[in-house]
What does this fold into?
Amino acid sequence: MPQLDTDKISRWDLHGREHVVRVRRTGVQRTLSCDTCGWRRGARFLPWARAQEHLADAHQATVNPAAA
Ligand SMILES: [Zn+2]
It folds into this structure.
């Protein structure tokens, strides 16, 4: 996965608002936290996939600004 060194995932929603989920390492565990709504969750595997899932489900944010 090309995003392994990334410590945050940002996506835009349909209104062009940016939503950011930060990824923090805690040993083997990663802790995700969403800047927009305060959602938090630990993810041992695929934290980026979990972050994207949250952004899409909670904020309808699916546009990757890096890919635009
Ligand atoms: Zn959120």
About this structure: Helices lie at 47-59. Residues 8-59 form one domain. The longest strand covers residues 18-26.
